[in-house]
Fold:
Amino acid sequence: MFILNKNNSIANQFLSELRDIKVHKDRLRFRKNLERLGEILAYEVSKSLDYKESEIETPLQKTKVNTLKTQPILISVLRAAVPFYQGFSNIFDHSDSGFIGAYRVEESGNEEINISLQYQATPDLTDKEVILIDPMLATGKSFVKSVENLLKNGRPKKIHIAAVIAAPEGINYIKNNLDLPFSIWICALDEKLNSASYIVPGLGDAGDLAYGSKL
Ligand SMILES: O=P(O)(O)OC[C@H]1O[C@H](OP(=O)(O)OP(=O)(O)O)[C@H](O)[C@@H]1O
Ligand SMILES: O=c1cc[nH]c(=O)[nH]1
Ligand SMILES: [Mg+2]
Structure:
């Protein structure tokens, strides 16, 4: 598992601004920070992909370069993933993308989180490296349900789970429930979930901070 904030970098300032109640109500900045972390995490994921050598011509002479062997497929889990996904898409600019509409059904009086998944549009995923992008990995149910549904569109060679903040409970849920090759890329591993299955310390509701509350 790759955890970005284990090392000092400017990414930790972006993460701090996402969490800080004095800053994170500025929606434009909140979305921009998600996008910036998406770009940084995409760069880290890019180091794990396969490259091929080829020859190009500069105005001065021929030279050998290493470029991606195949483009990963990017999948955005609507709605909160949109700005974070944009960061990935800025880096993997030749990639095809897919979209999944998923949200947690939080019923009062019921601590169990269920996921409603109502929309999926993706290319053929057979034997592809897929980057599944969602900023919050809380119970892990949205990621696991998304992967289960993605399999209808082909079995990927590998899935890269990409999130900004994860809870240990969600990481364990993913490890116990995914039966295809995967790796996890996160910016921070937080302490735990609270009784409403929100990540603590976390940042609150990522979708609401980016776009406002939904009915
Ligand atoms: O790990 P989990 O417990 O499944 O929680 C994580 C999910 O919660 C958030 O979405 P939310 O359901 O709030 O939908 P939204 O994107 O519409 O805000 C987040 O973007 C994940 O999809
Ligand atoms: O802490 C959490 C958990 C799920 N979704 C969020 O946006 N935040
Ligand atoms: Mg939400």
Notes: The two ends are 35 Å apart (CA to CA). Residues 27-46 form the longest helix (20 residues). The CA atoms of residues 125 and 164 lie 24 Å apart.
